[in-house]
Amino acid sequence: MERRINKVAVLGSGVMGSRIACHFAGIGVKVLLLDIVPKEPTEAEKAKGLTLEHPAVRNRIVNEALQAAIKSNPSPLYTKAAAAHIKTGNFSDNMKDIAGCDWVIEVVVENLDIKRKVFEQVEQFRKPGTLITSNTSGIPIHLMAEGRSEDFQQHFCGTHFFNPPRYLRLLEIIPTPHTDPAVVDFLMHYGDLNLGKTTVLCKDTPAFIANRVGVFSIMAIFHIMQEMGLGIDEVDALTGPVIGRPKSATFRTADVVGIDTLVKVAKGVAENAPNDEAKKIMDIPPFLQKVVENNWLGDKTGQGFYKKTKGEGGKEILTLNLQTMEYGPKQKARFASIDAAKPVEDLRQRIKMLSQATDKAGQFYQQFHAYLFSYISHRIPEIADDLYKVDDAMKAGFGWEIGAFETWDLLGVEAGIKNIKDKGLTVAPWVEEMLSAGVKAFYKVENGKKLYYDLASKSYKNIPGAESFIILENYTSNVVWKNSACNLYDIGDGILCIDWRTKMNTIGGEVLDGVNKAIDRAEKDFRGLVIGNDGTNFSAGANVGMIFMLAAEQEYDELDMAVRLFQRTCMRIRYSSIPVIVAPHALTLGGGCEMSLHADKVQAAAETYIGLVELGVGLIPGGGGTKEMAVRAADEYHEGRIEMPILQDRYLTIAQAKVSTSAQEAFELGILRHGVDDISYNQSRVIADAKEKAIELANEGYVRPIERTDVKVMGRQALGAMLAGVNGMKFGNYISEHDAKIAQKLAYVMCGGDLSEPALVSEQYLLDLEREAFLSLAGERKTLERLQSVIKTGRPIRN
To answer: Which pLDDT score, from 0 to 100, does residue 614 have?
Structure first.
């Protein structure tokens, strides 16, 4: 049977339930969100004459929870409009409505008896064949299905989302012995393709995979810090982005997750996994017990290992001193090896450097890796039969850029074993057996595919589902051209892909040269080109440092050449003889956005934050972005429509430096095009999906587009109104004098200049106006001040 998910019921509207509901609504699925009926009306409800029978009272808990979720930041919805897909109700009145749902997800309190009562109700109303899953993070899945019907048990399993569900990509799928394998296969695929998740098949063991390894890692760090006499600020400096972990590192992560939750998981593993060789690490250290006793549980109670305070200088974050249990100013952590490693862009190289260091930081990493590698070796096959599942879970659930077994490979399996034994720990026999058989690594790459070592067959196997992904680091043997910034890969089927590795993936001369070279090569020997990468961000835009240097030294001819090169590159993306697909994700600002605007098609990750932000640094988009927004406005002018509001919308998108909070919102801003551009909800699929789009266009007989000479511009008819608006904002002190100057130049370009009446112009005409405005603004002192501020602090000043 072909299973489809058109409507989902979410039972429980707490923090997780309401946000899971929002995530399904965000992908266009109808959602029924239910919770309990309050015990009695509030005083405010009584004052209005409402009784417990009134719908507003009966649905108060679910409605307030949903509104709190919708208002939260970051938003759990891709667009605010998606909230309309959610209908609320309560268990007493609306449980019967789950009969019309294709999937029922239980997200009530972590209490087995309560969950069983809910499932008893569900069984009364669900139609046979409906999926039923639990979002539990700790209760054994098989216990919840006991006593239920055969059909219920066949369609029941665990689906453990991580918080926040929209942003954390892990979805653990935990079947019971009775779960139909077809149900598991469906959820693994649906979670990946539709929900954008890294779906990991887990065994029904305590804390499953990610929390089992993640909480062990945190508890191990707590023990190491006590042994080494380290403080909270030092540990968070050691366990954050410098080793490819989130900025929240260790203690900030505990505050966000909830320190009580961390303790609960640790105790749960210690109690329910009696054969865990490292369960002593799960013992709660005295400082952690004291924090819980004080009810300093993190963000939920306003203080934990960190505490926000308001002082004379504004907000300040204080750090808990674990010896005195008092808060004090954050301390700058100083380690010579960290200072030496920070400038190294390559994370793998950085981890190697730090792990070989001889200072206190190096000692910390050696001890931590000994604990981690020993632990994960013993968890296979206990928590998962396949080692890649541990890495997938830690990357998607805890934000590790490199997985645990991947890190072990990086540092050398033999060296890792020696370190484990030197620290008095043990390694699981299968690892040494693997080495004895001549297998020296947990992973290897062949023909662009990453293979993992399989314990059962004692051989390498393909990672299931990985054929849907193109991960560029697996294609290093397929590089057909490169320079110091870019790599051009043959990704098969006649399609090339170019990526670049610069700081924040900014775009400078070498990147532009690389894109032009890629188009040349594709036009000569291939069928299409993808512009995409596996970096943290697609691109933070043009190289601001280069622009500042040329402008500050008044090298205007050089700057003019650089702007012309950017414009020509974007026009080549649009007007090449092969299809060019741009595949953005995460930050896609300024020049990265301009490249996307000129693509034949954009294949964007759902989490794409895209926009033209140049006005913030005192410039206008100069790589064709201003021109393109004027062209898109002109293409919307139709007989009978008022043209000015259309142009004004496009103008304000640039003037207000709007950045989408998702790819879906980018359609609303007019940056992505309905019916042309598309979204991949799983970021790992973006490049593979972009490749398919290039193949489709090539198969359709792609023909080079003809450059436009028919762009309608409004001239003075629109320019006067826009300038009046700018002056009004300036006189009202909403914008500075320099802001007004930039906005006026932007209006001049988008209106086609000071033309006496509307006219048809070429794209090149608009590009020339755009470039002249960009260069004139680059010479302004206040623009230079803004550029300098961005270089020094990462933020423009308001001047």
So the answer is: 96
